[in-house]
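Changelog-adjacent note: as of this version, every example in the card shows the full chain rather than a window. The one below runs 194 residues end to end.
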Amino acid sequence: MGRFASLLVGGAVGAVAAFLFSPRNGAENRAVLSEKISEQAAKLPAGVKDQANSALSALASGSTVAINTVVDNGSDALKVVKGKVKPVPAAVEQAAAPVLSEADDLREKIDAARERIATQVAKNAEAVQDAAVDKVPGLVDAALEAKAQAGAHASTAQEAISDTAAALKERIIGSAKESTDAAAEAAEEASDKE
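Full-length structure tokens:
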């Protein structure tokens, strides 16, 4: 193959690569390519058209071979990359297995601790309720008894105060009479001496 043919094949391969990596979809690329070829073909004389058709046929077959080679090599490269990428997730899974197992163990321990705490809280609540039920009637009885005793003591105290007040009243009245009598006697004695 000469230099010109190599140039044409290289240009064709570049054009194919440009179409493969263009942002347009395949149908748009074919429409653009067909339009450009039709415009250029209309401008060429008949002899040039024949030479261009033969060059285009040679270019198409050469580019097909080149494209197939690139696709095959790309497929082989993809298989190699996939072969190297597959062990990585497996290695990650192997490395993560003990951590995941430990996380599962911790989750089970936490769940078990939650159950124990809930059971203990329920037992404590029952114990408090039982103690309250047991103590409340006793406390009510003790309060009623204390009230009765306080009432009895209050009555006794009131009687004692009344008795003491009556006794004091009698004493004061007695003392007042004695003082009055003593004063009257003293006044009589004083009037007798006069």
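Structural remarks: The chain has a mean pLDDT of 75.
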